[in-house]
Specification:
The structure is a homodimer.
Chain A: E1 8-11, H1 15-28, E2 32-35, E3 52-55, E4 62-66, E5 71-74, H2 80-88, E6 92-93, H3 106-112, H4 119-122, H5 125-128, E7 129-135, E8 141-145, H6 157-161, E9 170-177, E10 179-180, E11 185-192, H7 195-207, E12 214-219, H8 220-230, H9 234-237, E13 240-247, H10 251-263, E14 268-272, H11 275-286, H12 288-293, E15 298-300, E16 303-304, H13 310-324, E17 327-333, E18 338-344, H14 356-371, H15 387-393, H16 396-409
Amino acid sequence: MPAGPPLAVVRAGGVEDVRRTLAEASRTGTPVVTRGAGTGLAGAAAAAPGEIVLDVSGLDRILAIDPVDQVARVEPGVITAELDRAAAAFGLMYAPDPGSVATCTIGGNIATNAGGLRGARYGVTRDSVLALDVVLADGTLLHVGRNTVKGVAGLDLTGLIVGSEGTLGVVVGATLRLLPRPTRIATAVAYFASVADAAAAATGLGAATLRPAVLELVDAKTLAAIDALRGTGHAERGAALLLVQADGFGAAEELEAAAAVLARTATALTTTTDPAVAAELAAARRDALPAIEARGRALIEDIAVPRSRLAEAIGGVHAIAADTGTDIYTFAHAGDGNLHPIIRLDSDAEPGTVPPAAQRAADDIFALALSLGGTVTAEHGIGLLKRHWLERELDPAALALQRRIKALFDPAGILNPGKAI
Amino acid sequence: MPAGPPLAVVRAGGVEDVRRTLAEASRTGTPVVTRGAGTGLAGAAAAAPGEIVLDVSGLDRILAIDPVDQVARVEPGVITAELDRAAAAFGLMYAPDPGSVATCTIGGNIATNAGGLRGARYGVTRDSVLALDVVLADGTLLHVGRNTVKGVAGLDLTGLIVGSEGTLGVVVGATLRLLPRPTRIATAVAYFASVADAAAAATGLGAATLRPAVLELVDAKTLAAIDALRGTGHAERGAALLLVQADGFGAAEELEAAAAVLARTATALTTTTDPAVAAELAAARRDALPAIEARGRALIEDIAVPRSRLAEAIGGVHAIAADTGTDIYTFAHAGDGNLHPIIRLDSDAEPGTVPPAAQRAADDIFALALSLGGTVTAEHGIGLLKRHWLERELDPAALALQRRIKALFDPAGILNPGKAI
């Protein structure tokens, strides 16, 4: 993408601003890049010269929370954690909790179909979206979806728009499903002699038909980075860590069953139902990205593989690091087979550029994901950065259909051109 | 729809048969109606003269069940209950369980996005479909979706095809998500003095942030029909019944919390963790439809409303029965706000026809659903029977887009014309 300032920035104060901007852009054939908090990791919200940035972060009201229907009506600029906090006042939760939950917006989450730690049990953003108000490329305001939990009237346009990364329309309102907030949480942290052992233990939980609400893996390099940042002693206890949380009425008993599986191969194991201790244990996972980023700029990748291939995937990432001479940290939503390999960039790398070795490592990681029957992006989106990989992942006939659907929504091609599909 | 035999019936023995049939139908402009077990309730699989019936029920193999990845690969003619039984051998379940689970097929479930009793907790068919093999109208074989639990590469064509009632393509293979099968189930049956009390109690469970796996309501007329069929004594115990099941590690304790809410207003309440007693209690719900159908032919309707409007919806259905002089039985997936009003037809009604009073009652019920912010179909589909209601439910711009997407998939308009959208 060419560098330089965009043509204009429109800070939308309401739906009419969005409609007028898109109608005018369609008329003049001007590209529009919709933007929320700008926390995306695939470049979908980055604008080039000649493009209009449509900032909808100002549409940030929680319009309603209905505790009986367990739905929220929100504008797209609402910060995800703020919605979850508002839901908590009614004993409810908004389940999707991407790593950037404290700063990202619901609109951005909808654009990328964002996941998060609770995804293993409670699903991703698409599972929480019941209805959307969307401004189409020509300025038409469209309502899709329903107010009810179930409904099969017509084609699922709501699900189609979720994850479309700003290429089909601009979301200006959403009806979101809320869920009862678990009041009991039981937590375990287990250390293992190798990342392969940790991955096998994660798989073992599935084989025991256990389905914890949280199942996160952190590798040795990441543990060392956390120790360096926080003065903790994770690396002494093992070469990989699993964080497991069970919730709901049977939390303690479910965690006990999980701990029995973990104990078979763990080098160290701690369990608790005390929220303060749990927060301390969970910090090992929460600190992973800050600890890596404290060491410099990084490429944050986002592959997923079938759960049975998790150990192979992590082993493959480590081999790629050795092969390319790059510094790669890996943590994973192990319950979903979703890995985040983080490639640290040399501190002397030009800002805005990716050195060839890091780019090769990233490409090798994507190829690895596909070779294991996985995907190049589990929850961050294709954006700008992975666009050439989309063609390697998808059936060409499916990609062709997607592009024709895009053309049907946006005949002038003004909505986030060159991104996602 | 005009009566009479179809042009031809093709019993597909494999994917190539489906491809050749569709390619030839596209070439000649001949309509194709795909059919599985024919258990649908909205007429989507009914063919008219001049149309080809494409029967895919012979593609009925379970190709693989992977207990570690917790996915199944199946052909569309697999009976839903058979997949669930096969999954049970691995301690897993296939969650969607429509009323017709013992006879309906996975392909039909995908076509209608079928729900069922476990939907309140475990979601509907769309939530269980990871990938599809689909033959397009021109005979192209398309693969959409992924092998992983998460993935955001490209637009969600999989979700678009689920629920499209045979109008976008013919599903010839599916990768389905399986879930751990709950080993503990706790069951309660509560009776109430009125259906309004029962609906309020169901709502009260939500307000207490309880989310049982099953939450079913049966009204007085239906209880009387069950008593007549089975010699049970439900009607003596109350004018409405709630069946509540909790599952998982905390099942007993969760049910206890639910029972405390129910006990506030129930006229009778029984709880159990004994599977044999539970099966007996659950029979009150399972026998509902057979008991009504024992009294003659019936229209099985399928509306949903926001959960907070459940009591109003049931009261409204009872008022419509009085107003139209029709015999209407109501049971409901109360946890989803999904009602099944069953309109019994006069025994002297011409087969294949609906008497005017029954049709008026059905139309009034659809209008009621929309007036309460609901939908005319929660899980059966639009099919042939509710097509004119689709235009009243959906935003005209959304319906227009859906029809353009349909035209894009099927330019010759051969796939189930006149149905669904």
